[in-house]
């Protein structure tokens, strides 16, 4: 049975490309559609081409397309919030270059011998400029900013699309034989400069795009596992599993675009990890192709005492050791019932105390997140136009109740969003337990709608960054994990540091500096920061941005936070690795690299 | 622009308004200070329970319980009692009472109380942004009441003040001070973990919550000599801790320089330094108090310095990650980098106090008169210096000190001779003017009927009082003076030789003057810069040359340090000649004092200043530090 039904036909055509001249035109078209993701996705921004925020002629914000709950809606409050928060104006536009001029792209450095042998294997490849540019970046601010200006640095020289594990084995063998550099490419959602080609790399760089390896190979209902090719994208995996009544429950914010192999390679974390676990809890078996050969375990056992877990060399290796080709993952029956919820707290301190208590009692719902006051207001600005006078009346009443009757300060209150999952009765019971705890910390239940909107924010935030960039506003998010006793301190200090650094670096407008506690653990929490500012008046905004982000990371580390909770290290955070894992730790990682890949075939230079 | 010409704010006299409007109205007026933006509103008693419930205290109570076998409840009770004894209970009503009574007292005692308003404004801003620590210089008991008085006047948040337990001796006064924001610390609590935990947690709680600015004296105690004292690090460590551990984003430290034209305790300090027992507190004490009120103490200048961000001080000096691996509430000794950071910061802050200390013309006149006195004495002359000549010299010294960056308050619109005479009038207890000749009010001659030792002491009181005014200017001259002395004592004019000699002297005197640790090269360069700039020195490739006109400057400068040099010499002599194995620390001062008195009476020492116990203690400390003397236990 072929699970990847929607693309399999086109793939068949594509495979014929090199053998059948007659189908040339059709094939070109097909390859265009399915190898050129940039036709569906933006080449210089986030997400789908048909989906974006814009300010219409009336100055009102609109979200285009049909893909999201918010799509096609007017968002009346966004303009005010946007102009008020950033000191920006919808009159001052900073549009992106509409198309890529191919003269901006350096001609490829091709290793002819490698290309010849590769072509003889029949594995599709391309050195088309657009294909190469699309795979030469992730979604860091500096990467997207440069693309919007039409600037392109070092990009892969050739893109190759293996169709299965064996194709990857062949490609890696050829790469070793001809000494070319391989950079695995999954969903391209990296925010750690992991996909950037090292400028000092003189060899031919081959981008190994795993997107064609997107099948579920089997489902084992006895053991509740599924064996999946690593190129599959999150939402596709869930959709296909759902057809059989299952899910993985792994939902990172990027799940629309990020791939299974990418999750494994970066130690990803999902929103609902409280029920389903993070990637390291979900993975039962991994197959990775390295220059030394294929690494995998000999069984699919739930736990082993067989020395250090080799999965932990693979997970988080960030493409420096090999390509993950196939993964056996745990699956669960789809939940019977889902319910969103939200709680308003008088202030952030109370909110954190509540989350800590929930974690202590180990009764966290599938997801529990606490947004600070600024993010709460941000979320509010994204409320779509209300359909009736009645709902707007109700909203007003709610606001009155919370701020006037309960005495909450609208500039201090914050909101926790909740997602419960499971069978109906248990969900309701669980819900009551959590709301009871919240009440002890002054929390008021604030409805399902607020909760759902909170989660929507995560999916649209990256689109909003593109909107900001159209109007001189740049920004980014970054994350950390931190022990419970440090949560409040790190939130306060990092936000204040961002504001201070912006001031010191000459940013003319006060920045948006906000955070949320986004995951809870027994011993700590994961904290997410959003940071954006209006860069009018700055000659090198990206450099200023990078300096501020650097300072913010130093502040995180000085406050006992981790270098990364789930984004990974890439090249962006490499400089702090030594202090993070000690000299010996670095030595261990390096010796593994030296053994597995002595010629640095996987030469993206991430991590170490 | 010359880096030595520092820009400073203008002053405003706050007594002027007091002389023109009702004190009662002033004491009862609306008081609405700006508070820290992150303030958690709480009362003095809530603070206490926050301290008792803190993680740190829980930890220490359990630790003490394990060590001593006492029940934790008993220790908790003990802790609560200690906190009762320690805690302030700031009340606006008490402050209003003081605002009223102090207005009355200040108006009779002082001509003016001048405050830099810009500094107040900066402080206001600092208080709003981050927790604030106020660090005033400490020359008088008056300091902390004066500080609160000024802050009340300007509608700035009233501070809580760390005070020594000695105040508590006076039951009523102690409680009054407590209600005006003072909290009391035992002078020594060595290894008492519980006390330390309570004390540090109490201070940190007030600071972190933005309850009030925390005020303490970096010098630990009132300086009896008017020289800045080597900073004490305990409290500074405590207030920096919340920043270093990330509990607050930043702490603003504001050095405040309070300079008195005439110190109330002037002769009291001299007597204390000489070991003359205090007169019994009795009716005569009251009489003295009335006498004090009838005297003119000139003006006070209070300069609120630039707020210093602890965050920026620590930038690149402290690795804050060191707190990542142990829970922050577990008390630990500060690491080496933190200890040296706090020490360096303390010196920088004392230097900041010094730099903004206003110097009155009298300070220069006193320096000149002292030098003149000793030269005359050596020459056997007993006549004073002509007023005209004194004025001319004072003008010379005025210009020199200005070039060295002194914050001199010399009224330029008044003829110099008048400036000098009015200084002399204000300090008439210390000088004698007779037939236009000025000299120190030191009675001399064989005709007096008092015992020679008593006469010696009464002369010494005058000289030490005078020296305390000269000392106010020492921070301006000390670096060039050390260089002058180094040139004088170096075996050659070779630059390296002079530097070595400078470095040795600087090292030796580092208990005496505020010399930042590890800044020998900077200090040397600064001294060279100043002397070259003023045309006193020239540098060739290898050599240091004193210019024609430089001799006068260098002579003045090195003479300034002479008494200190002689003091250290005589202490060494004492240790060589008289000290035995059994000399205890307690016996040291009386013994060395006796030794010096003998030498002075025999006319074998020039400077009576060497009788100062401060000088003696400092020299012993220096000798200990340099390894010339050893402390033995037992």
From TrEMBL, chain A:
Gene: agps
Residue span(s) of domain FAD-binding PCMH-type: 152-334
Localization (cell): Peroxisome membrane
Predominant subcellular localization, coarse grouping: membrane
Record key words, sorted: Acetylation, FAD, Flavoprotein, Lipid biosynthesis, Lipid metabolism, Membrane, Peroxisome, Phosphoprotein, Transferase, Transit peptide
Chain positions of site Important for enzyme activity: 369
Domain of life: Eukaryota
UniProt record similarity statement: Belongs to the FAD-binding oxidoreductase/transferase type 4 family.
GO molecular function, a single term: FAD binding
Name under which the protein is recorded: Alkylglycerone-phosphate synthase
Pfam entry (one): FAD-oxidase_C
Active site: 528 (proton donor/acceptor)
GO cellular component: peroxisomal membrane
Cofactor(s) demanded: FAD
EC id: 2.5.1.26
Binding, substrate: 465
Record text on subunit structure and interactions: Homodimer.
TrEMBL record, chain B:
KW Translocase (keyword) present: no
InterPro entries for this protein: GPAT/DHAPAT, GPAT/DHAPAT_C, GPAT/DHAPAT_LPLAT, Plipid/glycerol_acylTrfase
Subcellular location: Membrane
The protein's annotated pathway: Phospholipid metabolism
Record-linked SMART domains: PlsC (SM00563)
Cleavable signal peptide: none
Cellular component terms (Gene Ontology): mitochondrial membrane; peroxisomal membrane
Tagged with keyword Ribonucleoprotein: no
UniProtKB keywords: Acyltransferase, Membrane, Transferase
Sample GO molecular function, one term: glycerone-phosphate O-acyltransferase activity
CDD domains: LPLAT_DHAPAT-like
Domain Phospholipid/glycerol acyltransferase stretches: 132-261
Similarity comment: Belongs to the GPAT/DAPAT family.
Name this polypeptide is given: Glyceronephosphate O-acyltransferase
